[in-house]
Amino acid sequence: MESLKARIETLTQEIKSIVPANAEELEAYRIRFLGTKGLVRDVFGGMKDVPAEQKKEAGQLLNAFKQLAEAHYESFSHLQQGNAGNASFADFSLPGADIALGTRHPLRIVENKIVEIFERLGFAVAEGPEIEDDWHNFTSLNMPEDHTARDMQDTFYVAQNPDWLLRTHTSSVQARVLEEGKLPVRVICPGRVYRNETISARAHCFFHQCEGLYIDENVSFADLKQTLYAFVTEMFGPDIRVRFRPSYFPFTEPSAEMDISCTVCGGSGCSLCKHTGWVEILGCGMVHPDLLRNFNIDPEKYSGFAFGMGVERITQIRYQVNDLRLYSQNDVRFLRQFTTNT
């Protein structure tokens, strides 16, 4: 420790005695003291020889020494700028400084990819308001008044009697499309939705969905399966495997959850798939006949399927992002990792 103090004192006196006269001498000072192989870094290397009980004191001395060396350099920075105003040293034929370009948000990258795939399958894009009424968000979609989703613990209500709320799914956009009465219907509905949930690594009070709807004559569950299989092979590659599990949704019957083989472990088991080899990506099913009747569509003549997926979920699988909060924290260190041309 004493030898370190003595060396710092010696170098401090040397720094104070240096008075650069021009830019070349200032650069020589920078290289000698502040360069990657300079004396400041070399002195910091002596920290490893300091006893543990004295490391705090040594660290304070080293930091003060480094600040002194940097401040001395900055005090002569005008020497570097001395030629800046001399036009004879300006070469206007040189290219300009690069302009830093941003990139799209990872959620937007994935959402655009989802929409692009379904547009190639013949789906149009439909959008709707984020503040919805009860009819479009709940009642028309076969959710009765006592449905749990209507509880204020699950939904953000803006007003009541009549009820207005932040939409809980983009199915409300499907309702507005069906309300127009133009058949057949084949739409994909991307957008932000809101649910009253505690914010954590796995849940957030807002997130993004892409829901799809296809209504026409003679639409079958086979059409649903083939459409979704085409989507996942485009999104995750031709080697992906899928499975459908029976489920329940009030607006579809029959209903199913769709899983894909884990893209990380290939099905052998890992933390992403919870060692099952499968990852759930969306819910789907055949449109409930009562829902069709709500929009004056004859279920004896028309049938259809619907599906819905979370954009965050697909992004997690593609980029292995393990914390939902990262998407909304605006941390440029996180966002700069994603680049795309779309």
UniProtKB/TrEMBL annotation:
Q: Where is the Aminoacyl-transfer RNA synthetases class-II family profile domain?
A: 110-337
Q: Which UniProt keywords apply?
A: Aminoacyl-tRNA synthetase, ATP-binding, Cytoplasm, Ligase, Magnesium, Metal-binding, Nucleotide-binding, Protein biosynthesis
Give the E.C. number(s). Answer: 6.1.1.20
**Molecular function, one GO term:** ATP binding
What InterPro entries would the database entry show?
Answer: aa-tRNA-synth_II (IPR006195), aa-tRNA-synth_II/BPL/LPL (IPR045864), Phe-tRNA-synth_IIc_asu (IPR004529), Phe-tRNA_ligase_II_N (IPR004188), Phe_tRNA_ligase_alpha1_bac (IPR022911), Phenylalanyl-tRNA_Synthase (IPR002319), tRNA-bd_arm (IPR010978)
Reaction it catalyzes: tRNA(Phe) + L-phenylalanine + ATP = L-phenylalanyl-tRNA(Phe) + AMP + diphosphate + H(+)
Q: Tell me which cofactor or cofactors this protein depends on.
A: Mg(2+)
> What quaternary structure, including any partners, is listed in this protein's UniProt entry?
Tetramer of two alpha and two beta subunits.
Protein family per UniProt: Belongs to the class-II aminoacyl-tRNA synthetase family. Phe-tRNA synthetase alpha subunit type 1 subfamily.
Record's protein name: Phenylalanine--tRNA ligase alpha subunit
